[in-house]
Write a structure and sequence with these properties.
By secondary structure, this protein is of the alpha/beta class. Helices cover 34% and strands 23% of the residues. It has a single domain, classed as P-loop containing nucleotide triphosphate hydrolases (Rossmann fold).
């Protein structure tokens, strides 16, 4: 069976006076039906831009986004309107994504109206069903967004995404603005909904602990490119790229003795300007094991195991048994 989503050489470049910001610069990956791909990295690495480009909310500069074999980049606005039923987005800031002038029932029903899915009594019944699906009482349909807590608002945002019966949902930092106890509830809700409705997720986050809990596969992004990609078991047990290792070293361990003994990798400096990325390997200016050759050529992709690959020149030495 072919993947539900295939992204091939996706690029999003923004023209600015005198320069070009390469926000996303040649991403390729696939997402199997019913699975979750975790997209992780520092702020500014291009995670959210990737999600928006997949949904065509930002028009890609180049590449392909194949959804069920259909290239979304080549669809007209009319054709995309039809396809958007199957492609939805959950924003980071739920309150900001909800129209403050509309009650919750109308916010959820708006999607039903746009796609002509339900009318009259059936519409009201569907709204109650959707609210119940995300754990909200039906009387909240009369409330306004400002009357909801952060967790309730995020449940409404999830409810809106589910209203049109999608197959693929891009979750853009859906729990980062919530308290830790509420985060767990929302993550569990998303997993339950995925199982019940056979949903496919792209889960964007900078929180590696949540990504580990949510994802089947993980892609680590740095400055518009994927540094490493693998199953969650492989990437958390044996990260290969120096950037992935640095990120993993910052994840707290539940065992205080192990946490005290562990050596962390501290990255120096800030994320480089995507309008003027470093030559060769983009991570080399902050990499603790960089060498002169890293500046001369973009690191090739190395297969490290089943469904596990990374871009790092050091891996050539590891694979061939060479020394540096």
């Amino acid at each position: 069976m072919s993947p539900l989503l295939q992204v091939e050489d996706l690029r999003v470049h923004f023209k600015t006076p005198g320069s070009t910001v390469r926000a996303v610069d040649g991403l390729s990956f696939s997402v199997e039906r019913g699975q979750t791909l975790g997209l992780v990295g520092e702020s500014g690495c291009g995670k959210s831009t990737t999600g928006y480009a997949i949904l065509q909310l930002i028009k890609p500069t180049g590449g392909k986004v194949l959804y069920g074999g259909t290239d979304l980049c080549k669809q007209s606005p009319r054709e995309m309107r039809r396809l958007r039923r199957k492609l939805q987005l959950i924003f980071q800031d739920a309150h900001a994504s909800l129209n403050p002038r509309l009650p919750i029932g109308d916010l959820v029903g708006e999607a039903l109206d746009i796609h002509n899915l339900y009318t009259g009594r059936a519409r009201r019944g569907r709204i109650r069903e959707l609210l119940d699906m995300v754990g909200l009482a039906s009387h909240l349909a009369e409330r306004y967004p400002h009357e909801l807590s952060g967790g309730q608002a995020q449940r409404v945002a999830i409810c809106r995404a589910l209203a049109v019966e999608p197959e693929l949902i891009v979750c853009d930092e859906p729990v980062s603005a919530l308290d830790v106890s509420i985060q767990a509830q929302i993550v569990n809700l998303l997993q339950d909904l995925q199982e019940q409705l056979h949903l496919t997720y792209i889960f964007i986050s900078h929180d590696l602990s949540i990504v580990r809990h949510m994802s089947d596969r993980v892609a680590v992004m740095y400055l518009g490119k994927i540094a490493e990609m693998a199953t969650k078991e492989a990437i958390y047990a044996a990260p290969a790229h120096p950037y992935t290792k640095a990120l993993m070293s910052a994840v707290p361990l539940p065992d205080p003795d192990l946490e005290a003994q562990r050596r962390r990798t501290i990255l120096v400096g800030d994320l480089p300007n995507p309008a003027d990325p470093p030559s060769g390997c983009r991570f080399r200016t902050r990499c603790p094991v960089a060498m002169p050759a890293c500046a001369g050529v973009e690191p090739p992709r190395h297969a490290l195991g089943p469904d596990h690959w990374a871009h790092c020149i050091r891996l050539s030495e590891t694979i061939t048994g060479g020394n540096s």
